Amino acid sequence: MARGRLSPLEIAVLKRNPYVEDVNAMRIMYTYKFKCMFVERYLAGERPVDIFRQAGFDVSVLGEKRIERATARWKALYEGNGVEGLRGAARKNDENMPSVADKKSGGKSKAAKNAVVDEYALKLATQENRISHLEKMVLDMTSRLKVLEKQLAEFAVKLDLLAEHGSVDEDYMLNRSHGNIYLYELIYEAMGKFAGRLSVNSLCEIFHVSRQGYYRYLKQRSMAREM
């Protein structure tokens, strides 16, 4: 699979690999040591993907096309000039060596500057991951809320149907104390069904009953079971 630009987090992770000299969003520069090791193992019959993976690279980040291009390029350099061909390519791509201009500017090499950039890139990528995680949590909570709203609506419909079709005696429903007992039973059922996701306070507010009355109901229910 082909890969496009590397993300800040992928760049930061790649720069921690000892076989990487430098990396940016579009290009990875490998060390001379890795290129020599790769060519030796490749000519011995090992698969390029296995060599990269065993060297600590995430091949899904690199992508198959990037690995194929690197294999073809290093193979051609080796066949043309042996290991010296790989050494020349490594020197040409070396961006971590301090230049004369770096020394004149206070001795701060590009490697040191890159380290600062890497640190900020890693922090940025970490924050992006946290934001993504929080967004997923919000979506999950929104989805759960919709489910709960639907289930509570079903309870309300159930109550209306019982009253309408006479499954519950009319006098029973009109009597305040008996009606509350029925509502307490619904709250008790809901608490069992949605344990940990609904509170007694919210259910008492929905059914317009007091918490004290609900807890008295629970106490009486417990005492009735013990008798």
Shape: rod-shaped
Q: What is the H-and-E element order?
A: HEEHHHHHHHHHHH
Approximate strand percentage: under 5%
Mean pLDDT: 75
Q: What is the structural class? A: mainly alpha
- Radius of gyration, whole Å: 34 Å
Between the first and last Cα atoms, what is the distance in angstroms?
Answer: 71 Å
Q: For the largest beta sheet, what order do the strands appear in spatially?
A: 1-2
Number of strands: 2
The percent of residues in helical segments reads over 70%
As residue ranges, the low-confidence spans are: 90-105, 165-177
Largest sheet: 2 strands, antiparallel
Q: How many alpha or pi helices?
A: 12
Outline the structure in words.
With 227 residues, this protein is mainly alpha-helical. The protein has helices spanning 8-15, 32-43, 48-54, 59-62, 64-81, 83-92, 100-104, 110-164, 170-174, 176-193, 200-207, 211-226; strands at 20-23, 28-30. The protein has a two-stranded antiparallel sheet. Residues 90-105 and 165-177 have low confidence and may be disordered.
Break the fold down into its secondary structure elements and pairings.
Blueprint: H1 8-15, E1 20-23, E2 28-30, H2 32-43, H3 48-54, H4 59-62, H5 64-81, H6 83-92, H7 100-104, H8 110-164, H9 170-174, H10 176-193, H11 200-207, H12 211-226
Antiparallel strand pairs: 1-2
